[in-house]
Write a structure and sequence with these properties.
The structure is a homodimer.
Chain A lengths: L5 H5 L9 H9 L3 E4 L11 H8 L15 H13 L9 E4 L1 H13 L5 E6 L4 H9 L2 E6 L11 H7 L4 E7 L11 H14 L2 E5 L25 E6 L12 E4 L3 H13 L5 H10 L4 H23 L5 E2 L7 E5 L5 H10 L6 E4 L1 E2 L13 E5 L4 H18 L2
Parallel strand pairs in A: 1-11, 3-4, 3-5, 5-6, 6-7
Antiparallel strand pairs in A: 2-8, 7-8, 9-10, 10-13, 12-13
Helix pairs in contact in A: 3-10, 5-6, 5-9, 11-13
């Protein structure tokens, strides 16, 4: 019998998804499961996007242009201009979600065994994309005590080798909720210029910056144009994760020309989702204002409630809709599975994402979980109650 | 300035797409372009699929399950059963098009520098997916004189090395239109068992078998269950190329479990397209009967008309909707570009795909083009007239 690849063996199970079968079993037993494990907001997709798909006039669901239509990319450029990011239609390649944007980016700039430095904890699927691309993630540790701020730049410098091709950040951060300051971005700018590296920034949570803080994009940094590659997606911005539309944005024409070849090989991003995404660009500002208010409220609720539980340590998020919580357990992986398999409070339980999978360094994050505050306030309060009781039962 | 990867440099331009800018320039000049270059049929998508999307009730366009919903995969398994392919819900991973299915397959069974043997000419993007995956395509030559039948099995055998992990076929073939017989599949079965290789079959044109011939799937071959991986897609079957829904089907549970990890990393196939694809499974048989009649008619028309042109050699397709034509030109690449840049007949021209990009062996296919008969009969006849006049002008 032929065997699978080493690459396949090394592919990690998604810490966000791997407990899904346990959750489904719990549901089959009639237990209600609150999903704090995945960044799937309950926020309604903008009506204008939903309507565009309902009213579509397609008779043949045809391929779209590999890089996305000129009209969509032109409208996207206008959206970026409103966000102080000056790019043109041709600086954009539309992709099937931010996931594909990152895969195309890795493929375009990195060869086998090349290295990308990423502050950890980081979005768990960066591990999977790296293994799929045959490259190596070199983690630099950020700490819950610092709210996961940028590690000292010397720590990055220590890790740079001839194999290093890029630094990758997620800003605002998933799973940390940390929003990098302009000063932090400028520190990264200095180092990528010094060592001739790309700076890849996953900015899919751009809109989700709280407490009056402004998001500072790597694309805003003058003189960094040839070094920066921005990853973006409609998933979170418009609460349409299932659309699967993202993009690569760069002023570096070599990067764009190369990413285009990857895009052409897979022919087309999904056509229906493009209709939704183009329409979504006309979403009124009031939608975002409401959404941000809602998330701030949820974050405040979640953090306040979590901090009431003895033995829990939380990093206060300034953006996105996640937080990392350190729990008074030894193995959060086991605890998370136990929550689904063996615990219920009045027939309800919660699903969280064990945080170890968000780290590349073995042994880190074992007692941490990522909590996505994508549920309404009432459900969040209830979820934290369940967590509190569960911890008591688990630690008895 | 940081540089792009060797992988990126090696990524081929798509022979199907690379002339698109020239076609757009021609259109801007008011020239009508008949598109024979891409497998984008003009056939209407089944109404039932179009309606399902128009009538969707989504309020949040949420992630789908990474491997596709249980209901969709169960209905897919029933569709396969009708096609004499016996598989279960759990033998299927739903992907973003056949493209992603092939990428996940390569990732699941092949490591860097591993080899896959493919009869050439083959679907050009196999080259791109191989480079993206860091693996090597080893071509085995099939010939226009034989209508591109399976090369002698000894020719495969000569190419097998310790690095060989799989043989990949496309059946019916893009770009050849060749339909492998049961006997040919059985020859492949013998060799993959003898050398412990996977047999990957891209069967996205399953329905498009003509002249009363029946498609024989690798999945029908007894005793081959652990060796076969089938790639499928809704793109051609339901004329919904832009949906981007495909799947991997295998009875080999290691392959499916590994492909699932790749699927989880990218979270979800596109949700709207899943709605269309699930609904499309209820397309009435009459739709396919009409479509097949139409394609047979088109094929007959195209071949008859092409054969009237002196100096053209064509392989008669038995399936899919492509044919390879050998033209009386030295460089079909140049000729195809010239057709768009410099030729018109009453303000009309044609776009074809130069065939060299469908070969891996340097120097093969230089005087060949792939013609997709995805236009109506009248347009096909007109297209061949244009080709005839163009060849006369080009060869003056």
């Amino acid at each position: 019998m032929p065997s699978i690849s080493n690459k396949g063996l090394k592919m990690p199970e998604s810490p966000i998804r791997k407990l899904v079968p346990y959750a489904e079993d719990a549901k089959k037993k009639g237990v209600k499961v609150f999903h704090l494990n995945i960044g799937q907001p309950d926020i309604k997709t903008p009506q204008i996007a939903l309507d565009a798909v309902k009213n579509n006039k397609l008779e043949v669901v045809a391929y779209a242009r590999s890089e996305g239509s000129e009209t969509y990319r032109t409208k996207l450029a206008a959206y970026y201009a409103k966000n102080n990011i000056s790019v043109n239609t041709n600086d954009i390649i539309v992709t099937t979600g931010g996931s594909e944007a990152l895969l195309f980016t890795f493929g375009s700039i990195m060869d086998a065994d090349d290295e990308v430095i990423i502050p950890e904890p980081f979005y768990a699927n960066y591990n999977g994309f790296s293994i799929a691309s045959g490259i190596k993630v070199i983690p630099v540790i950020s700490k819950i005590e610092d709210n996961f701020a940028l590690p000292p730049i010397e720590e990055f410098e220590k890790l740079i080798t001839p194999k290093t091709k890029a630094i990758l950040i997620c800003n605002p951060g998933n799973p940390t909720g940390y929003l990098y300051s302009k000063e932090e971005i400028q520190k990264l700018a200095t180092i990528v210029k010094k060592y001739d590296l790309f700076l890849i920034a996953d900015e899919v949570y751009r809109e989700f910056a709280y407490d009056g803080l402004e998001h500072y994009s790597v694309m805003q940094e003058k003189g960094l144009e040839q070094y920066t590659i921005m990853i973006d997606s409609v998933s979170k911005r418009y609460s349409m994760c299932g659309a699967r539309i993202g993009c690569i944005v760069s002023k570096n024409t070599d990067v764009i020309a190369t990413a285009l070849k990857f895009a052409q090989a897979r022919l087309s991003p999904p056509t229906y989702a493009l209709i939704a995404s183009e329409a979504a660009l006309d979403t009124p500002q009031s939608y975002f204002d409401d959404v941000i208010d809602e998330y701030v409220d949820r974050r405040n609720t979640l953090i306040t409630e979590l901090e009431k539980i003895e033995g829990i340590k939380v990093a206060k998020p300034k953006g996105a809709f996640y937080c990392i919580a350190e729990l008074p357990v030894e193995n959060a992986d086991h605890f998370a599975q136990w929550l689904l398999e063996s615990f219920q409070l009045n027939n309800e339980t919660i699903m969280v994402a064990p945080a170890a999978g968000f780290y590349a360094t073995e042994g880190l994050g074992l007692n941490q979980v990522r909590i996505a505050y994508v549920l309404n306030k009432k459900d969040l309060i209830r979820s934290v109650q369940i967590l509190k009781k569960a911890l008591e039962a688990y630690n008895q």
